[in-house]
Design brief:
By secondary structure, this protein is an all-alpha fold. It is 78% helix and 0% strand.
Amino acid sequence: MNPWLKYSIGAQVGLLIGMGLGRFSYTPMVPILIEAGHLSESEAGYVGALNLGGYVIGAILTPWLSRHFHEAWLIKFSLFVAIICLIASIFPFGFLWLALWRLAIGVIVAIIMILSIAYATRFAPKHRIALATSIGFMGVGIGIFFSSAILPIFLAHGVIWGWVCSAVIGVIAFCIGCWAWHKAPSLDTSKTGCAKKEIQLSLDGKKLIVVQGLFSIGLIPHSIYWVDYIVRELRLSIEQGAFQWMLVGIGGIAGTILWGRLADFIGLNISLVLVFAALASAAITPFYFDDSSIIFLSSFVFGSQPGSAAIVAARAQQAVGESSMVSLWHYMVLSVGIAQIVGGVFLVELFNRTDSYTFVFLIGGTSMGLAALICATLSKQPPKLEPRH
């Protein structure tokens, strides 16, 4: 098997464990955790917030860790710690216990994302770089599908079974990850033989950091309010709301590959403009056209959002030339984490004050539209940057 494909699969299972199981599987567990008395409503919110806070911490720590440890070893160690976090979550020892492990897995997912996607882009041939990152980010879509279609079946028997199911799937993914990262070379010595060096950020790199922040804000409305909007505003059933979230997961799996193939065919810059324009439309159009087909399309297109992250990651590799993109990617992941925290607080407070879905989704769509405009200004042939000694 080609190394780039092997590392892309490794990134996929890493994001499945860290992002899919470590973040999205928590959402359907919240009401059951509250009903079972494991957490109060406020504690459940704090646990979710700590997970996001851990993501920011992981983004800050990753560059230092990658300078002192072999990157492939770091990924494998992070996968192991993530499994420990999932297993520890099974035990109902209260708020502080669960908060600790959700914080830890938040840290871990940032490390896994930064390093594994850096491998996928570093080793993929130029005409396959978008496909390589899409395969990796497909793990996010698999996690969403799992949380909406499979996990509720186990949660019907109790919250412990939900945690057990997540842990079992995590262990299987961990075994695949160990295979994928076995004997993987260092990111910075695999092609050039040079020691690890700091890469100076280009103008395109700085633009991509802003784009990631806008992208993160644009995700918040659908992530928090989409099912709530379908059930309470459109007065559809809970089952129909769950089906729409499952459609989001399907979009995450299929859409990510489709966007990646399109990017390899027409180019990264044009694909980024198209994908962000599509995501902006998915956020806004349901509020002007309430036809069921528009709702279905919005769910599927929003679900394909890991594809935009994959193309952005591929474009980030272009921005640093032949060097490892860990330095740039770490800033981009940090931008996502900060925007999630700040944007999440602002949009939730906005909804609470206005009781209007329209304003919240309009801001989300506008953020995606601004990201599309910035991507339209990216250079066609990014210059190769020389490492700073």
